[in-house]
Amino acid sequence: MAGETILIVEDRRENIVHLANNVLKPKGYRVITAMDGQRGLERILADRPDLIILDLNMPKMDGLEVLAALQQRQVNTPVILTTFYGSEQVAQQALQLGAAAYVVKPFSASEMLNAVEQSLARRVPPAPPPEPEGTIPLTRQVERWMRDMNILTRVGKALVAQLDPESVCGRAVEAAIYLTRADHAFLFLLREGEETKLCLCATRGPSDPQVRYLQQPVESDLALQVARSGKTLVRTQAPGETALVEIAGQALGPLVAVPLRWERETFGVLLATRRPDEPPFHEMDVEWLGGLADYAAIAVRNARLIQQRTAPQPFAESDPGRVAAWQQEIKQLAAELQAATETAQRLAALLAAEENR
């Protein structure tokens, strides 16, 4: 679903008009513009667009300089860099500076829209402070629910498209913080073939600039309870979670933990918490987190299946009868090849003799 604001930073007016009128606006996106890098940076900081389409070669500040300025100011708005120069070196610089995608000119409308959708799907805006449901007018509640549903759908599509379990965990953690307006999120995975050992794969808190990937066993009674029961658990406080408190670096307050469960199999637990002085999670927060966990479970399952199919398979010891049959087939094939070789040699000799007459 569109409706997001996209800032185009481009110094050629005809390119702006084409991109805005023929590509973005027909899909429902709101467009704002700037015609040089310096003005673009000012608009980014003032207007806070949902996405930036940034040209590389511009007056005053080029695209890489704008990306560097955004990184310095810790602005996490996704950026699509466009340029005629498709060198790997420039692309790598742009990605290192935080660009979400890289599109080479001339691009088609479908290429740009695909980059826009994928970049917006990865976007996790800063979570606004929690607001008690009872104090929000009904129209604002509906708007917020629709916005969160839109984000959940986008994140879900991005998750199930991932083939790397680590990437799945990181995106699920970021989305959990935004959707539930939590301060911390933790994602545990059960070790394959085991039902009692949880590995904390990814976590993020308010002091973390990005997701931390830990891949370490962590004792959490609440998470283990959810993994064993396959049922959601909601608490107004999180007593006894010493290991999580140590990882978070501060006390934990209201907590909700949901299982990553699909087709009667539990893959892990997604857990979100707030500070002790913040309000508890509402029913809708729990619903959003549950929906996100369902997407994450499917994504983890798919990623593991892909890894299993692409991993080298160890040689399986066979029974003596089958081995003997294979050996006999190999001998027969070798004999046939030898006979064919001898026939070819005889024919060659005959042809040579005919030519010499």
Number of domains: 2
At CATH level 2, the architecture of the largest domain is 2-Layer Sandwich
Secondary structure class reads alpha/beta
CATH superfamily of the largest domain: GAF domain
Going across the biggest sheet, name each strand in turn.
8-7-6-11-10-9
| Strand fraction | 15-25%
Amount of helix: 40-55%
The gross shape turns out to be globular
Can you tell me the CATH topology of the largest domain? Beta-Lactamase
Low-confidence stretches: none
**Helical stretch count?**
11
SSE order, as H and E? EHEHEHEHEHHHEEEHEHEEHH
Instruction: Please report the first level of CATH classification, the CATH class of the largest domain.
Output: Alpha Beta
User: Major β-sheet, in short?
Assistant: 6 strands, antiparallel
Compute the number of strand runs.
11
Overall mean pLDDT stands at 79
Distance between the termini: 83 Å
Instruction: Supply Rg.
Output: 28 Å
Short description:
The protein is of the alpha/beta class and 357 residues long.
Notable characteristics:
single chain; Beta-Lactamase; 357 residues; alpha/beta; six-stranded antiparallel sheet; Rossmann fold; five-stranded parallel sheet
Describe the structure.
With 357 residues, this protein is an alpha/beta fold. The protein folds into two domains: 5-122, Response regulator (Rossmann fold), CATH 3.40.50; 133-309, GAF domain (Beta-Lactamase, 2-Layer Sandwich). 49% of the residues lie in helices and 18% in strands. It contains eleven helices and eleven strands. The protein has helices spanning 13-24, 37-47, 63-72, 88-96, 109-122, 138-160, 165-180, 221-229, 242-248, 283-310, 320-356, and strands at residues 5-9, 30-34, 51-55, 79-83, 101-104, 184-190, 198-204, 212-217, 233-235, 255-262, 265-273. A six-stranded antiparallel beta sheet has the order 8-7-6-11-10-9, sandwiched between helices. The chain is globular, with a radius of gyration of 28 Å. The relative contact order is 0.08.
